[in-house]
Amino acid sequence: MTDIKRRKFVTLMGATATIVPVSALVASLPSHAADLVDPESAQAKALQYAAETPDAAKHCSNCALYSGAEGDESGPCPLFPGAAVSANAWCSAYVPKG
Length: 98
Ligand code: SF4
What we know:
Number of helices: 2
Distance between the termini: 65 Å
Helix content: 25-40%
Bound molecules: iron/sulfur cluster
Number of domains: 2
CATH class of the largest domain: Few Secondary Structures
Strand order of the largest sheet: 1-2
CATH topology of the largest domain: High-Potential Iron-Sulfur Protein, Chain A
Strand content: 5-15%
Shape: elongated
């Protein structure tokens, strides 16, 4: 390998090493970075999802199915894969945390 090819190879490897960790970081972003549930979606309507709970004592952040971190404004719920539910939302599948 000539010096020029080696330098180009080393430069490309350095650039690749920089890009890979950035993409790994983006892929590891918490799921609450996902879009919020669309209250007009068929799933939301079927579960009577409300972006603001009608009962202050019952909301996603104290539902057993919610897996967002405490204090987060939204988080994942297995009933809405690929979207986040608002911590203050509610749906008819609500189960109080035990
Ligand atoms: S089941 Fe309903 S109330 Fe419980 S976290 Fe999911 S959307 Fe919120």
